[in-house]
Queue: 2 jobs
Job 1
Amino acid sequence: MLGDIPLNYIRLEKNTGRAHAGNVGIENAKGDYIGFLDDDDEYYPEHLFVLVSFLKETGHKVAYGAVEFAHKALDGDGRSTISEVKWIFGRDFSYGDLVIVNYIPLMSLVFDVDILKRLRFDESFELYEDWDLLIMASERTDFYFVNQITAVYNQWSSSQIAFQSPPEVIRQATLKIYEKHLAKMSPEIIFRVREERAEKDRSIAEVNELILEKEKVIQLRDARITEIEARENSLESKVAELDAEVVRYQALANAVFSSKSWKLTAPLRRLRRVIGSLFNKRRFVIGLASLRVATAKTYWFYRKSGLKATIRRIKAELYFGVYHSKSLGSSLYSPELLDIVDVQPVSGGNPGRIAVHAHVYYPDLTKELASYLKNIPFIFDLFVSVSSDEARDICYQEFSKLPHVSRVIVDIVENRGRDIAPMVCHFGVQLAKYDYFCHIHTKKSLYSQVSMAGWREYLFRQLLGSEDQVRRIFTLFLINPDAGIVYPQNYEHLPYWGNTWLSNRVLGYQICRQMGIKDVPEGYFDYPAGSMFWARSKAIQDLFSVGIKLTDFPVEAHQTDGSLAHCVERLLVLIARNAGYKPFILRDPLCPSWSKWRLDRYMERTCDYVKKVTLEASNIKVVAFDIFDTLLIRPVIHPETTKTIIEHRLQESGGSGFAGLRANAEGLARTRLGRDVALEDIYCEFASLTGKQLSEVEYLRSLEEHIELKLVAARPDGIELFNHAIRSGKRVILVSDMFLPRAVVERMLTENGIEGYQALFLSSDIGVRKDTGELYRLLLERENISPSELLMVGDNEHSDVQIPLDLGIQVCHVLRPVEIARGLYRFERVLEWVQTEGSLDEQLVLGLVVTRLFQSVFYERFDPDILIPGGPEHIGYAVVGPVVLSFCLWLMEQAKTDGIEKLYFLAREGQLLKEVYDRVARHVEDTIPSEYLVVSRRTVTVAMIESFDDICRIARDSDYFPNELKAFIGYRYGVTLDDDDVKELCRKGLWQTGKSVEVRGDISHLMPVLKELAEKIFAGSRAERPGLTAYLNSIGLNDVTSAAVVDVGYSGTIQGMLSRLLKKPIHGYYMLTSAKSREICQRHDVFAQGYYGSQLIVGDFNVSPLWRRSFELETFLSSNDPQVICYDLCNDGQLKAIHQEPFLEEQGSLDLRNNIRLGVSSFIDDFFAIQRNIYPDLKLPSHLPEMLFGEFVERMSISERGTISGLALDDHYCGRGIVRLVS
């Protein structure tokens, strides 16, 4: 029954009590660990493995797991048992609690035998002897809780001695414990127990509140499930009915189709289809709506460009429109957008106090607004702002009829600040008193010269479209305490570039500073475009108290942007986030898009489309190109990075505050001169502002020019558009708002192959800027063209898109690399952390990555689920390169500090590590020499076998997945078994036919086989050791006084074996080390340092993602070379390496790994170019590489998995054979 488990049965002649029996057990125990199990309790199969593994890995002496407390009773016939889990015990250890309460079941613990050999049960106790033992043991060592259920404590009314004992006996036993141990309760311990008890009471209260909230959520989900199941049953019934109908009609159709009359009337049917398509109601309505928009756009294009250009445009749109529809393959899923239909409508009455603010500038829309407000199923107060007496009367009369409105307040408010000013300044104080409020208005926008009536209807429908819609929105608020504001995704016809500051940046930054908002966005960001939303009042109440007055808003004069109202609209989400809340954005159900900002509209463009439709348009005479971020790109994620670099470079010489002074100097120079300024003007003002010497100021100016010059590189797609415009015969000019001198800009252009332009307009040179519109007016005058004859190609949404469009100029927008990255939900998380919390080093490194990945202007099939676009070379650049380089930079410094003379990189992952280390060494003085040590676990462990314990250690130290015995013995020990050998082992009863080998720490089932094969294993070890020794001597490992090995990690097995073989300490540097490495360090008096994590425990995932996904890490770093098995010292003294035969499954990895390494090399070259030319102190902290690696491997998209699907790793040593990274 027990199989291989040894059982020592000891019979006591008389019952001397539980304490005596326990002591006898302790005295006769032969193992390394001791546990106690009553006959009516249960261990789960993994109980001993889990706790013993924990003790071995950590070196601790006592551990206990979680326990199910179950009530058991006999059923009615007295034969079967009924079991019911009442509760689960499991919490961290507290000595104070233990002295007061016997709260840890003895059977849940496992003790190191050394602890109990020095302790005994107190045999004077007839009850609570276990409690007494635990108190004594806890005074000698720490107890550790492993949060995994491993045992069951059964409570039988007839079997528990404590429950059988009378209350007085229990009382006396408890007092005896207190008499023996209470003296140990110092005032500090008593106070700590009191504090712990208070904290637990608070935690219980919080948990109870959480349970109530979760119960509400469960009720909502149960109701939703019931609804879905009912709908599913109904649909299944309908499907069955329709299936029957299909069969019947199919038979009828077959009869008709085969008839002569059907064949004779074919021409009439063709004509009918044409007529029918015209009068299909649904298609007709959709087509009419599209036609209305298209007609409006066409009309305005005709007004600007003429008839011939319009006809060419229509032809191109028809052709490329079809092309686009075929090329789209993007996912429409994004976790940043919420499908409201997936949310269960909240039931019941009011979820809190609710208000609605409606700004009714157009009273003719009052009935429409009321038709939506009646869908609010809760009692609410309605606040209405109007601009006339007539509007007030209309609104009051109409809104008073609403079924759930409690009171209606209609006030006349001066026509300032659109809908925003009345909400903030007039009703803000009142709205702040409610739990929730909705803000809506009667929007009639003219945006981009096309009527946007559908925009208002879309926003109304998303926020108030039905009673269910409103209830679903309130479910969001109720189940998400951090939900601050809920609003719809951008309307489909709203330009994507509107999700930036546009003309509102200066005022927006000013209000953010005033409100204490530190994380101010620079590019694209979230806000409710159209300013309609539901909000939790607490989330934006700071807006109502910031001190904005009605008179701060300009009188309405049809402003389309740049007013305080447009600025506040963009602040709503920022304010909510600053208060600790987050936005929920409702996906557009009718026009879905993966991008909350509708960036898919940009990504749909192709290079051919832009060339043919835009650049080659006959009405365009001049094409103007912006320079920076359009033709030239800089590897930065912040536009002011250059100034930050200079400030860091000046810190040792007291240059703190340079960036702020430099910005002030630019503003003062512009104000003093009354025009845009050049770098020379700025530094003249800087000298006056700071009082610095002329020579020092000149150094700073030249340093800034040097950094800007070295930062820029060509943007290939942008230059291709530039060259195509030249080839098409257009006049091509360059236009830029830039402070750099003309000579510096011209040098940048020349060095990056940008030649052939006919004119260069620099704001620093001519004194006017694009972002004011003045430069465009000057350009049009000098070029003698009308606005419709100019095409502007640029990246800045304000100065290159909004301003020229307002002037009637054609535009072609080019997204900056950092904004493409920001538009991807996976990359946005990394970008946001680096911009808000990252160091200058991390900003520069991420700038390199973003520029490399997203420098393209056009994307043929853009996948929004990706983190890394492109092929394996980009994975090497953005994922593997940073991980390896950060490690090698640390390694180089740490090895110097530790006095290491030579580093030995272990095969196979060490090959890439050494290549990177050697590349780093080219840029660093006084580096430690390195060597590639081509050995494996198999090479050193077999050659080092000296005893049967060594044989067992090889079998036990690494897990082995289920596989044949032949494979296990061959790969672990180098002994070849054929089928006959296995049959003989089975015949002797040492193994079972067909049985697989599996090792998870326990090797008892392998012991008979290992003993049988021990002599063969010893012989193989003796044969291999001379070759290994000769190889180690040949690479000088035995000659170095202080050497260290370098590898990925984890337990330091090879390091320990080499230390033992060479009889001297061999140290180790690793990316990661496991807790097992501690034993190697102690045994050989060495260190084993882990960079991304040290002495980590298996199963602990609250650590580096490199530890959580170590298999992927090894696969990326592994070599294409076959694994070395052993070294053969031939008779002639020649040394020969014996390698594992290559496997066919590995062939697909060769090109992938080579391309990954190309990317790694490119990243390292770019990193040191920045360090050499721009920022000499550049470093690479570990956190950013970990973030990039974790985001990539833990959330790979389908296309990314396809990119690396050929990568595989040889894991025969652990029984898995060739393992593909993506199966």
Job 2
Amino acid sequence: MKEFGRMKRILFATSLLVGATLCGGTSTAMAQQPKHQTVTINAKSMSVKQFFAEVKKQTGLNFIYSTDLAAKLPHITVNATNRPLRQVLDEVMNKVNCRYEIEGNIVTITRRMAGERVRNVSGVVTDESGEPLIGVSVCIDDSKVCTITDSKGFYTLKVPANACTLKFSYLGMSNAELRLGSGRAPLSRNIQMVTDNQLSDVVVTGYQEISKPKMTGSVTTITSAKLDERYTTNIMNNLEGRVAGLSTYNGKMTIRGTSSLYAETTPLLVVDGVPVEGNIDDLNPYDIESVNILKDAAANAIYGARASNGVIVVTTKNAKKAGKIDIDFAANLTVYEKKNVDYADNFYMTPEQQVDAEAKYWDYYFFHNDGEVADPIVTTAQSISMGTQAVTPIEYAYYQRAKGEISEEDLQNQLASFKKNNYAKEYADAVYKQRVMQQYNLSLRGRSDKFTNNLTINYKYDNSGLINHFANQFNAQYKGSYNVAKWLTASMTINGIYSKSKEVGYDNNSYYSDIWKQPAYMPFYNADGSVKGQHYWYDGNDYMTFGSPFEDLSSNPVDEYYNNTQVTRRQYMRYHGDLLFKIIDGLTANAQFVYETNHNTVEWNATQDSHVMRTMRNAYYYQSADGTIKNYVPTTGGLLRTTNSDGRYWTARGQLNYAKTFGKHDIMAIAGLEFRETKLTGSKALMLGYDDQLQTSSTHTIDFGTLSTMNYSPLFFGASGGYPASQFVFDPYIKEGMGVVPETHHKYASGYFNLTYTYDEKYNVFGSFRKDYADVYGLNAKFRGTPLWSVGAGWLIHNEDFMKDIKWVNFLKLRASYGVTGNIYQGATSYMTATSGELNQYTNLPYGTIESPANPNLKWEQSRTTNIGIDFGLLDNRLRGSIDYYNKVAKDVFSYRTLDPTTGFTSMFVNMASMRNRGIELQITYDWLRGASRKNWSWTTNFTMSHNSNIVTDVENPSNSASQLIERPYVKGKPSSALWSYRFAGISDQEGEKGQSLFYIEDGGKSHSATGKSISILEYSGQSEPKVIMGMDNSVRWNGFSFSILMAYYGGHMMRALAHNETFSSTWSTAIASYFLNAWTPEHPTDIPGIGRYASTATGSETTYSNNAIHHADFLKIRNIVLGYDFPQEWFRGTGINRLSLRFQIDNPKYLWVANDVHVDPETLGLRNPSSYIFGLNISF
């Protein structure tokens, strides 16, 4: 908690700093207004252009005017000494027959038309989120009569009284038009401009900012305006469907497929220019200005050995408006659909069905087994007395009937009563609760000539939908800069995250947290209304007692959620400092340093009454030499197991930046050095006999040496050979709670350079080079540093002379690139590695185990990517997008190589495999309707599509058996996500194996057991990763209302689902899969394994990996539907409120279509994720 206390103090001090600088910055910016300024100008025959320059020199005002207009105006004489600025401007403008307008520090000059009939048009220009846009150009038709918006987005312009069109243009936004009818009355027209995602002017790569026309790489930019259209708790979900080539399938993020077999496959995360060790869920979704996804080598090769999987560059928001403090507040309430616990919907037998199926079996077992079961009454009596497995109520009822203790009528009455129970429903009513998540965000931003300050505070709370569960997170960030001098700017970011979650703790022997681990008809409550204790594995049953000194081991699900808990706390801090030095014109240097700390504490507390501690005490009772019963562990108190881990990471970078234009030549170049270090340490601590209230324990009284050598309990379950104390108690509860978290410590160094050259705004060439060093490699000096590089070229076709008459083509660019990027596998090292630690059971001395031999030739994995793409904007940029083709070849991929057993190792990790990802990407945006004002309709569709072909082109697979190939499925010529399956051969009708699944083996034979057979018996069943991904996002706006809908398609892949797994004849103690309703019998032969009388005597994994469990996984879903309303700004004039909006959103509505016919959601392999309903409020001041 010391770390959290330090974080709170830092954030408090930061808040004070923000408040002070915001106030100070505001007063500076508001210091002087044009109406109070004076000028001194005395000149004869001065050009108007010279006059404007002199006024700018004295006042700082900027003049906007047509160069053609200025050239035609006569020279003037000015005699003004310390005169008010407006008087001088009025006098000069009258002389040259012009007019002027001052907005902020902008003066707009236009020609005054004699006798003209004019009217005044004014309004505010905003983006999609309602933020005012500063500096928007507003022009009358195609004339040069223009103005620009001020710091509040306000514009005013005198326009002809006859019909005309106002045209609005702004970098990064699609052009907008406002058609005006004839008339002379003043008009007020507000305009909302739409972000042009494809033609955004600037791309942020992390190391530099570069205009999109100069980019030769494949990059997709998502702006904050687009991100704000829908609410998500993390940025990953908000990118789905908006970036061609990006997959978030099953929560795994990849760009352009998988390029490694064992190393990291997720993209590198870069925040404000520097890679971070935190995860993408740490990002505050309200504080993101833009996200740039770098996909090919020309875009991401500058990141070298960490860029093989693509790069996601996140830029956080910064204050834009000078002279005022912007305050933004957002609140979102998410209400989740209740979990569906219907047995039939979850592919289980209903209570009635399970009662009938189980009763049929026990009727056969006790009364009609024709001698197949030897003395069933004795067998069940032994099961009851031993207590090693559950005895179901129906088995016990038939047992009583067989013994004559109850009548047939009593038996039938009991069965009828069981059918009325519904364990899942009653469990859900008692344990589940309405899941609700709340998230709040407060942002304060301000800037002045010297300072830029941003403070964002975010809080999230999730009750997790379960009793005694929750997860909360506090996230605060300060980001600021200070212009120390004309040649130096200092920037600083401090980000702190504190999170805490609580959930049910670990229990090795009980499954009370799994609603399906009891029969569907099992009563949840006792007759007196109390919650019934349930039995699972090695914990007795309802019909026996252990006797003194042993305790009852039944699990009350409700009590266990309070008696066995795990609390996880996390404190994360990120400090980022940046100094920017302006050396000479075009040349700057910056030095950056980022330091991150990540402290995690996991506390598992099992109280004295928990199932865990009752089991532990029972397991360690023994009889002493004097005949008394004692215990090796404390008989009072509970368990507290604490795991602490600390991560400390830093990155230092020094970089030179050069940008200069010489006539038709434009050059941008960067060069720098980067150093990085990562270190993770941790420890574990265990206390037994722990009393949370008294904060005491009895750990010091325990002889752990004795416990470690006790494989079976001497007294507990003595009749069955003793309770497996080592397996069920010591290893999972005690041994795992002591020791250290293995330390990992790595150092890296890099040098890099890149150059972009543009000629005549038509032709681009690009080159980058980087060399990385890492301590995980390097026994062989040849591989200590790896050069990584890329080249690219671009042709801006629309700027060619022959394209000038083709008006419908606004932007057309052809680009191509090739480069080499890398990937690091942290699990490999050049050195021989061994694990140490435990005591040898024979010598009682410490020993170590060698894990892998030394390999001096380890090196980086490499990806060599070729990319050809076209960017386009057509029909006044109404239709815009990009098309890309890529070929990504991964070399030196880590995989296993078989070794001669005489070396002492069977295999080792080496750089020997290769892979290829090849595909196409399409991203298209079309504006069906463009609304220039709030009252106009606007409708935009964004469509993305990607097709990726993934192939392992070279690999050695050391698998010797079918089961090994299924576990390690990498085969030359097949995808890395290949599915290998046993070939189902029907159900056996032969004696001794009736009802058992059969599978084809070598030479066409059939066998129930196939796991140990050769790999030739398996068939390739497709790949588990999608080949085709499509997304379509439609956004409609009108009169303040907004509506959007996002759809996603994933296809070309397969899944394993609803495998017809076998079960033992006695396994009725859980919910039973509904496919057994159609189980095989001699009278009713099917392809479903038998159950009960015809159940398997030896189940295996073959049915799980059978080809009859393979299904098409294609699906089309609506991800979310959003309805919003922005209140008119006029309603809040004078209140201080700039914007107020409401939003209602539905996430995960029912899927539209799935390719499989078994009604399984391919993303969950069961029921779909519950829908959620989000109510949002946004208000800005």
